Structure formats: structure tokens, C-alpha cells
Amino acid sequence: MELDLLNVGDIAPAFSTMNHKGHVCSLSDFKNQNIVMWFFPKANTPGWIVQGKGFRDEFKKYQDKGYTIVGVSADSPEKQKKFVDKFDFPFIMLCDESHEMLIAYKAWALKKFMGREYMGILRITYLINKDGIIEEVFDKVKTKSHANDVLCKIT
Questions:
Q1: For residue 27, which of 119, 82, 137, 105 has the smallest C-alpha distance?
Q2: Whole-angstrom Cα Rg for the chain
Q3: How far apart are CA 71 and CA 61, in angstroms?
Q4: Stretch 70-90: mean pLDDT
């Protein structure tokens, strides 16, 4: 199945959604910052935990390279906060319960599992530069190595 994602060179869509602390967060809050924006299906699942720990463990290296890490799912702020606290994640987690941001970033799509089709969140990551332009798209995510895989692409 061919994925219809944002492409390198596209302008990152504006958004306004809650973060894990219950505050409204918008793309403009990250003005003049490079962003690693990773989308994941659901909090507290094995893949999410492994992927999140990877970004946590490499967090300082991302900071040193001038990148802010932002995770995004459709979970509630309460659920996200619980797991951010549990695993000591130092980055922002966005909570798009309405799916508006997920749709804008083409992370909400038709998925297939065991012969069943349903709408869900794709495990994708975008690198967004300081000007709000997509620099890199990661659509083949290996949860165990993803944080390092992305870090290796950052110059």
C-alpha cells in the first residue's frame, strides 16, 4: 500500500492541540526551532515505550544538534502525562484527540491488520527545519533503532 505523506520541501501544517500538560500548543510555539516530530499509534504500547525510550536516551544529542523532540498521538493529555512521568520523557507529547493535526500531517490513514481495515495513526517521523519546511520523512520505522536512525540523518 502506497502511503500519501508530506514530502521533503513541503511546509509543515499549522496546528493547535493540547500537550501532555494540558496546555494548548501550536506550531508557532516552535518558531525558529528544528523539530523531530514523531507520530505513534498509542501510548503505553510496547512499540511506543521502546521508541520513546530511544528518544529519551538520545535527547541530549538531539539538543546538541539543535533539535526539539515532539511526540504526537491521539491519546488524552492525562494518559500522555502519566506515561511521560512514568518513563521520565523530557520532551513534549502532543495529544490530538480530534485527529485534525494527524490528518494535516497525513499520519491518520487507512491501516490493515489481520485482514481488517481501519483508520489509525501511522508510525512516521518528520524532520522540520527552523523555517517550518519538511527536511526528511521517515516512514519505515524500526522502534528499537528509530531514535538513532533519525539522529544519524541530522547533520
A1: 105
A2: 14
A3: 17
A4: 94
